[in-house]
Fold:
Amino acid sequence: MRKEDKQKYGRSLKDGLLMLAILCCAFFISLLFQHIFRVQEHITTIFVFAVFLISIFTEGFLYGIISAFLGTLAVNYAFTFPYFALDFAIPVNLISGIIMVAIAVFTSAIITKLKNHEAVQIESERETMRANLLRAVSHDLRTPLTTIYASSTALLENSRGMTGEQKEKLLEGIKEDAQWLVRMVENLLSITKIDSGQVKITKTPVVLEELIDSVILKFKKRYPHQEIILKLPEQVVIIPMDAILIEQVLINLLENAVQHAKGMTKLSLKVWEEETQAVFEIKDDGCGILKKQLDSLFVGGELTEYEAADSHKKNAGIGLSVCATIIKAHGGTIEAANRKSKGAVFRFTLDTERIWDDTE
Structure:
């Protein structure tokens, strides 16, 4: 059986069981009304409400209409004189059935329309994000490629007239721009693969300290002179995750601060536990983020006002889009804000598996 068929079958089974559960609840509540509270008048209303709920929480029209017929039969058979006999000659029973079917049809139609509208809106948002990413990438690729082309051309045409120091400087610039382009391509691939479902998040238990050690080691290779203030929980914390992807999130956020937090003197990484979640916080004391950019920070918007004084690359927020995509795929949340004093703070959460000490 194909995956789509399994999902369809599972959805049908779930809707069928939900319909039966709601109808059974309505039946037992009606029995209570009839035999304990001696109330007969509102039993039809209970089944009408049950049909309404079924029409809301199930897919399409089928289950709502079936529940309307079953509800009509239940009211006619068990709660209308003569009891335990079907009699559709009574106008009240016929009218109740028609009302329940009408409610089922209209409610299902409205819910289906709302779901279709939500699907169109989600697709529209995705298209907007794709357009923003494409525009940002097209703009930002031009600068490093132009630099690489100009530097390599200068080396080829004028290498004899250059000193060793000049050559080394040009080669260092080519290397830096090439590394930046590689990271951008990696980020773009991560977004497209996860969004398209080509990459399935496989979570394995990871010790927090080992994760942070790996992140700091890789970050120091790129920015050896940037100090990071670390603060981690004293106890052992286990987090189910795809370690490679979460490393990418942390490195992206740390690099984001280095590249864009103009005037930064302190960069910190703090992790703590809140109930069953681990909260990761990257904080700097740089220039902060414009308020108008906070709402669109994780959808590939350009960070033109939030860039380092010594960098010609804007990164277009692509790294932040990757972070949001990865954290969402892990079932976590991510947010950004300006600090009250100075600088910006980024936080994201992941579910944890706590290892308790036997002495506790």
